[in-house]
Inverse folding.
């Protein structure tokens, strides 16, 4: 039951111009700064390529480090290049649910697929189904002429 | 990428003096007008509805009179088998019945037909935000129609790994007669539906967010629009996952990737595929879309039913805000419950528990909706028109279908009834008893707006009565079968001694099903007769409040011949402020 | 309904009550980007769970699959540059500076093409080494099993039948022609592995034999274990073979003796009686059968020794490098554990990303030759948003695929 509104609606001022156009300071310096920061961050994650990193940093830490770097880069791109820093609150409505859902999807995949190696040990291979007779025949055509070596 | 190039303004077509082939094409075929596109969707989906129904009769025939020649349809469809349904053909029948009904009927008829037709009219816009994108979303359905339709005829058999297309059956090209080219075409068709729905949903969302008439606040939106809005959100967020999964399965089949093929899969004594992947991954990704899809198939119907119940009870909607929150709640919960389709798939039991609890919680918002519908009609001056009858049927059938859903939600019970006819009964109650009834009601309700003429009430009531009776005859008995363990997707369950006593029940169901399809003749006749010869409807034949009823019937290009300004919510029936028992949204309040 | 369209000729310009302070196109694009987030979430999620769920230690390291980290880093840099240029182009067009806008847009387009070029080079590298998912006649196998052995055999047979006489005599290693290499691999390698693995009662030993063959053909890093294994086998076979060879030479001696006796007896003075002759002939036949049987036993050992000899020659050069690597013309099937899944996910992720890059380039291409004044700034803004999103996806794909 919606409230009967006895007053005619007031026509809101039509804010069709971008907030960003209001708030953004003109000038491209900030883009160059962000660009340099992105390059430095890329360099950071590339550090893991070198030998001494491999020997000194555990791989878990290095993965976490790289993901942190990636997130920082993503944040920089979104805030500055995609102008989200200067946008109104709608940016959260549009981006946060999708991000949450994708994280949730990933989390729900972990128990079944992410842990599959826990259940699928290598020993499974030793009990693999009986090999195809044709394939074995094809492979042992030479062997058929010779008696077993043991 | 038309989302970028499409101009944000609805185009203004001017009245033309000459009406050549070009004008005909641009007005009726490649139209950018949302009403024409909606009607195009309506006709296409109704045609597929008929095809899907015929496929269902094939299934029913085999279960009632197994391995006997099928009259009329048999020689027509599978003369090669001599009128008898082969097991492979039976598999194809249930696969394609479900595929057609889900992807080509229910989803496009709700979002495509009614979404397109109603959204701009109900929010007071002249058209969709992106008319060209809208047109493309309809024409993307045609490749889907083509691929699904043609898959019947290629390489011996249609796609036959179930509408869920579970691997490894679906990823192995030699698994069954239909798993060669037909299955690939099935996947391509699915992708086309996905792209079409994606285009549609971003368009609907933009339109609803940005193009509401002055005064039409979010809390004054009709429930139909709320249903469409949330549905579009569900489609936008869930569908890309299915599209991605579909691409992966397509790659598995054509290129030889191993996403869904398990390691060392050996079939018929030969290694099937370069594997390494997990069949369970497909199930997760598939149900991540297809469970929200259940709500995509239901929420707009719920909205439309709320509309009709209010109008014909002449009462305001009981609890508008709770209804809105309930829709949002159903949608939100709908995203985190997909695992309940996989309780017996070998899924991690810890996940099963999580999904079970979340699933049970959906009962809460659903109950809110049901009680509010009952509250709406309670004490109202009920007019038993055809749309109202269908709406009442929707509510009762939805309660039945919803309650049987709770059985399935509980893991221990599900282990027993999984893949029996109990689940078939459940989703037919929700989708046919629920959504299809709401769709019929909505067609009767908005027909005057679509075509400017009324449908015949008597024929409509006969149609309702027969459909309702045979619907319950067909689907209620499925519960009994399911409780007896009668398995689904089996060409000949009577192979097992246990199920032989169930044959008479199946024959009863088949007779009901055939009669149910046959009673649609009343609808078809009524529909086409009324388009041309029905009595002319005025702007507001039902004395309803919505904006669409203030537009001409049928609305011209641009929809409104005045600037609609909204003063109140859409359900102000029997308001004390006005002498009439309805109070249109656009009517300025009386000065006191 | 046909008459409806002519009923109302006058159109009312409708007013709306927009909820968000942005243009329709931009809102639609952001919604589209949210759907894209979900699309890539499914793809990247698939990769992540496969990558970390792979049996311990089997996921190939970048250099195992010829993946170059520096190239990936360069590509990242290229995309970051293109993100900068597109935003500069947008700013220029907002200031109605059409010249600059066009210049920066051209730069973006060029950088996008450069990205695709580097990507194509990377793909070529993988294709050249046979690392890609294939349905039939694939080279990439996940584990050494009988199907793998059978595939190697088929490939070798194909090579043998398709070689010209000239190629057959071509020397591929010291004292080794193509033909002899193929024959050695065929007999001492493939046939031995198939025979030994299928006839062994011990599944672990059978697996070790198949592993050994797969190692000889392709491996990530040389392992001392496999070389030692072959040396030990060589040591074990040699005395057995020597025994058989001495037995064989004994038999040969006996045979020549018998033959000599027979020859003597048939002509000279001390002519043998028919009875004695028959006895000798029976003896000869017996010896001949023994020779054949011993030879049968010795043949696989000789072949195996020849194979091991080839493998261990030149300080185990061929074994340590892998036949597939050293003799790349053979294009033999090879085993990379979890390799098929790696290839599947790599090509899927980068492929769909590249597809998005191509679409972005088309979008830029559409306005390349138009005047980029203020009126085009909305188009540029939307195109730029899309392009930044493509960049974002790469920002996550790069460390996951190349550096993890």
């Amino acid at each position: 039951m919606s409230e009967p509104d006895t007053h005619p609606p007031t026509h809101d001022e039509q804010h069709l111009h971008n907030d960003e156009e209001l708030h953004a300071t003109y000038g491209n310096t900030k883009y160059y700064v962000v660009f340099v920061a992105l390059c430095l961050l890329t360099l950071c994650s590339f550090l893991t390529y070198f030998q001494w990193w491999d020997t000194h940093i555990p791989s878990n830490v290095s993965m976490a480090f790289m993901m942190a770097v990636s997130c920082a880069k993503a944040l920089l791109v979104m805030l500055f290049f995609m102008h989200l820093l200067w946008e109104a609150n709608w940016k959260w409505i549009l981006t946060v649910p999708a991000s949450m859902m994708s994280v949730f999807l990933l989390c729900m995949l972990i128990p079944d697929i992410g842990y599959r190696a826990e259940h699928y040990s290598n020993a499974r291979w030793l009990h693999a189904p009986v090999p195809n007779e044709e394939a074995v025949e094809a492979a042992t055509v030479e062997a058929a002429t010779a008696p077993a070596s043991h | 990428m038309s989302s970028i190039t499409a101009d944000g303004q609805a185009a203004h077509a001017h009245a033309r003096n000459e009406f050549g082939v070009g004008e005909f094409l641009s007005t009726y075929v490649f139209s950018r007008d949302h009403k024409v596109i909606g009607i195009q969707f309506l006709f296409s989906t109704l045609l597929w509805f008929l095809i899907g129904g015929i496929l269902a009769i094939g299934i029913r025939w085999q279960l009632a009179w197994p391995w006997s020649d099928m009259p009329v349809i048999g020689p027509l469809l599978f003369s090669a088998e001599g009128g008898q349904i082969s097991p492979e053909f039976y598999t194809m029948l249930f696969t394609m019945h479900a595929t057609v009904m889900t992807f080509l009927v229910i989803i496009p008829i709700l979002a495509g037909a009614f979404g397109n037709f109603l959204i701009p009219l109900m929010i007071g816009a002249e058209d969709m935000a992106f008319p060209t994108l809208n047109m493309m979303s309809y024409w993307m359905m045609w490749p889907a129609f083509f691929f699904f339709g043609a898959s019947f005829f290629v390489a011996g058999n249609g796609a036959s790994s179930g509408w869920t297309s579970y691997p490894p059956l679906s990823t192995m090209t030699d698994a069954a007669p239909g798993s060669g080219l037909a299955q690939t075409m099935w996947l391509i068709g699915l992708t086309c539906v996905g792209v079409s729905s994606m285009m549609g949903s971003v368009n609907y969302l933009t339109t609803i967010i940005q193009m509401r008439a002055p005064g039409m606040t979010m809390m004054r939106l009709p429930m139909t629009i709320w249903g469409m809005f949330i549905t579009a959100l569900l489609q936008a967020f869930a569908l890309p996952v299915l599209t991605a999964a579909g691409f992966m399965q397509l790659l598995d089949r054509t290129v030889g990737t191993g996403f869904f093929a398990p390691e060392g899969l050996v079939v018929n004594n030969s290694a099937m595929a370069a594997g390494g992947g997990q069949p369970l991954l497909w199930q997760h990704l598939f149900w991540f879309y297809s469970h929200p899809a259940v709500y995509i198939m239901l929420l707009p119907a719920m909205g439309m039913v709320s509309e009709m119940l209010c109008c014909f009870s002449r009462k305001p909607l009981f609890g508008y805000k709770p209804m809105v929150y309930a829709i949002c709640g159903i949608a939100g919960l709908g995203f985190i419950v997909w695992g309940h389709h996989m309780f017996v798939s070998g899924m991690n039991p810890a996940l099963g528990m999580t999904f079970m609890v979340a699933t049970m919680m959906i009962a809460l918002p659903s109950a809110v909706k049901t009680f509010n519908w009952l509250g709406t009609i309670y004490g109202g001056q009920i007019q038993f028109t055809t749309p109202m009858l269908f709406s009442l049927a929707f509510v009762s059938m939805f309660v039945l279908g919803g309650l049987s859903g709770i059985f399935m939600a509980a893991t221990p019970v599900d282990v027993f009834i999984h893949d029996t006819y109990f689940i078939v009964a459940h989703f037919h109650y929700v989708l046919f008893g629920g959504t299809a009834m709401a769709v019929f009601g909505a067609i009767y309700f908005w027909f005057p707006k679509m075509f400017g003429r009324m449908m015949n009430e008597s024929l409509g009531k006969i149609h309702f009565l027969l459909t309702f009776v045979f619907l319950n005859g067909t689907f209620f008995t499925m519960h009994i079968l399911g409780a007896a363990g009668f398995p689904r997707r089996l060409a000949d369950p009577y192979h097992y001694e246990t199920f032989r006593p169930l044959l008479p029940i199946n024959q009863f169901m088949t007779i009901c099903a055939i009669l149910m399809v046959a009673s649609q003749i009343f609808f078809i006749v009524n529909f086409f007769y009324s388009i041309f010869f029905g009595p002319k409807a005025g702007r507001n034949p039902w004395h309803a409040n919505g904006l669409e009823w203030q537009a001409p019937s049928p609305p011209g290009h641009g929809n409104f011949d005045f600037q609609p300004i909204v003063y109140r919510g859409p359900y102000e029936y029997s308001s004390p402020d006005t002498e009439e028992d309805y109070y249109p949204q656009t009517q300025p309040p009386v000065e006191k | 309904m046909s008459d409806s369209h002519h009923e109302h000729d006058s159109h009312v310009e409708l007013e709306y009550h927009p909820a968000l302070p942005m243009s329709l196109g931009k809102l639609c694009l952001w919604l589209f980007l949210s759907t894209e987030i979900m699309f890539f979430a499914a793809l990247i999620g698939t990769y992540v769970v496969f990558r970390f769920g792979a049996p311990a230690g089997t996921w190939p390291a970048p250099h195992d699959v010829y993946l170059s980290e520096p190239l990936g880093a360069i590509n990242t840099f290229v995309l970051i540059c293109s993100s900068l240029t597109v935003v500069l182009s947008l700013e220029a067009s907002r200031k109605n500076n059409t010249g600059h806008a066009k210049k920066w847009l051209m730069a973006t387009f060029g950088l996008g093409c450069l990205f695709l070029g580097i990507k194509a080079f990377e793909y070529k590298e993988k294709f050249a080494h046979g690392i890609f998912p294939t349905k039939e006649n694939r080279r990439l196998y996940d584990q050494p099993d009988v199907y793998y052995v059978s595939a190697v055999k088929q490939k070798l047979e194909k090579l043998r039948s398709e070689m010209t006489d000239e190629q057959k005599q071509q020397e591929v290693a010291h004292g080794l022609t193509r033909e002899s290499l193929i024959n050695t691999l065929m007999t001492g390698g493939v046939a031995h592995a198939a025979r030994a693995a299928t006839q062994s009662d011990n599944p672990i030993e059978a697996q070790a034999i198949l592993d050994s063959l797969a190692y000889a053909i392709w491996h990530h890093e040389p392992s001392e274990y496999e070389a030692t294994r072959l040396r030990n086998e060589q040591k074990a076979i040699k005395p057995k073979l020597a025994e058989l060879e001495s037995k064989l030479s004994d038999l040969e001696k006996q045979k020549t003796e018998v033959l000599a006796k027979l020859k003597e007896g048939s002509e000279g003075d001390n002519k043998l009686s028919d009875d004695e002759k028959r006895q000798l002939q029976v003896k000869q036949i017996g010896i001949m059968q023994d020779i054949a049987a011993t030879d049968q036993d010795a043949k696989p050992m000789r072949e195996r020794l020849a194979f091991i000899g080839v493998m261990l020659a030149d300080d185990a050069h061929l074994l340590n490098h892998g036949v597939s690597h050293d003799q790349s013309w053979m294009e033999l099937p090879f085993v990379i554990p979890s390799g098929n899944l790696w290839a599947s996910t790599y090509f899927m992720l980068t492929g769909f990303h590249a597809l998005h890059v191509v679409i972005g380039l088309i979008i830029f291409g559409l306005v390349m030759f138009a005047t980029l004044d203020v009126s085009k700034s909305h188009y540029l803004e939307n195109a730029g948003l899309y392009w930044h999103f493509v960049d974002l996806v790469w920002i996550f794909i790069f460390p996951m695929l190349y550096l993890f």
Observations:
- Chain C touches chain A through 76 residues (CB under 8 Å).
- The radius of gyration of chain C is 35 Å.
- Chain C has twelve helices and four strands.
- The CA atoms of residues 182 and 378 of chain C lie 65 Å apart.
